[in-house]
Design goal:
alpha+beta; FAD/NAD(P)-binding domain; D-Amino Acid Oxidase, Chain A, domain 2; 2 domains; 9-stranded mixed beta sheet; 24% strand; binds flavin-adenine dinucleotide; FAD-dep_OxRdtase; oxidoreductase; FAD/NAD-bd_sf; oxidoreductase activity
Amino acid sequence: MAIASTFCSNTTFHTHTNNIPSLRSTSTHYSRFASNSNFIGAKLPRNSFYLSAGKPQTNRHVVNPSLSGIRSISASHQAFDVVIVGAGVIGLTIARQFLIGSDLSVAVVDKAVPCSGATGAGQGYLWMVHKTPGSELWDLTMRSHNLWNKLAESLCEQGMNPLEELGWKKTGSLLVGRTSAESDMLKKRVKQLSEAGLKAEYLGSSDLFDKEPALLVDKDSGAAFLPDDCQLDAHRTVAYIEKANKNFASKGRYVEFYNEPVKCFISSGSNGEVQGVETINNTLYSKKAVIVAAGCWTGSLMHDLVKKWGMELNVPVKPRKGHLLVLENFSSLQLNHGLMEVGYVDHQSASSSQISGSETDHGRTLSVSMTATVDAMGNLLIGSSREFVGFNTDLDESIVNYIWKRAGDFFPTLRSLSLSDIGANRNVRIGLRPYMPDGKPVIGPVPGLSNVYLAAGHEGGGLSMALATAELVTDMVLGHPGKVDNAPFSVQRCR
Ligand SMILES: Cc1cc2nc3c(=O)[nH]c(=O)nc-3n(C[C@H](O)[C@H](O)[C@H](O)COP(=O)(O)OP(=O)(O)OC[C@H]3O[C@@H](n4cnc5c(N)ncnc54)[C@H](O)[C@@H]3O)c2cc1C
């Protein structure tokens, strides 16, 4: 086992990052250094050292626990090829891709558990109807769309039921307009989507009414209809991916570390190479890559991790809170497809200040767009809100009422029902979407920190973009040619 590098504790290193505007280094104090191994559970040599934040004399150590002010590392040290921070849909699908597409070993570490972040709140649509052909997101989204379909098909071929395993349903999707201007826009969208190779149809008011009799339709109404659009259930899908990943545990290739926040990076200090992470309980070395897929926490986490080294990295991903209403055993509304109002397209990509028609409540800009689906268990899911209120995830009844009212604008039968009548059969999912100001996720290596990659910032499309994101990240790490251009998602653009 090779020792990565050596280090003297009183040395100050300067990392040169002149060509990297987003990542600035002042000075970095290193204590000792790390070594690594690609064997799970491999013991580290007794003379391994750590990179640690702060002054050298207060650094953590493993060599001489008797020194005053220095704590001994008694927690376990383990080594993997790849360490992934974040067990949301992005982190877990990246793990899956490494496991099925290479022979590397993988550790997934999360400060909580899978589905505790945005993923657990997801409505589950993987639709293409609101995606724009030719946009910078198109290739990634289209690739993911194809990969999800392939996964569902492969489950069928193996005798499994995608509905059971993933909550998979091919319901088709309707992007609904209510004015003549919106309907004209939808006609153009249908043309674009058809030219991009998707089965797409424009429905005028009478065809739309035939498809969805519960929908309020007047003479100006229209919809873009994609009959092949699918949805999944985020919880079932994550459970399926986790189960599949765990099959590699017996081969010594997969370990999960849950309820373990990552606290710092480990580095040799000699060349900015990050060699793993330290959690509250464990030190996890990575031979090939550390992938940070921590959703809306990615910006603050990276900021804190590199700040300890006197560096600055500003990944502008921030939390965009969403409420989603879940109605169990709800028989008052029958839907044949997944539905979304046309305003969703702008609300997803715009910053709050750009949203027209959004509600303002005590200076906080809130937008609500109607989305409606029926999940694999038969629950009616009605969404959803968007607002910037930091990392707060408290239930806000006024927002739930607004979502209900907005749904009533589209489905008149709901207007006669009060949410309080629904009582115990009502749940609300709340999640923090990882929002990027330019509307694109950040996927790729971090300049100046070799071995570190980011995969975050998918806002309201992380479920749909997960499989292509996972493929893109693994291709980068493994040095394979990418199936989609990664340039639009580069970390360098974070300034
Ligand atoms: C109401 C709502 C509806 C949505 N509907 C859809 C939809 O229908 N279709 C769609 O495609 N997308 C949808 N989305 C968006 C989708 O849910 C997200 O884009 C996606 O879940 C993001 O996944 P992620 O893995 O990046 O983040 P997350 O799921 O948030 O996972 C990040 C993980 O990182 C962990 N973490 C954070 N800090 C640390 C640390 N220091 N150490 C270790 N771990 C850490 C967290 O605990 C968390 O588990 C919806 C979102 C919301 C809120």
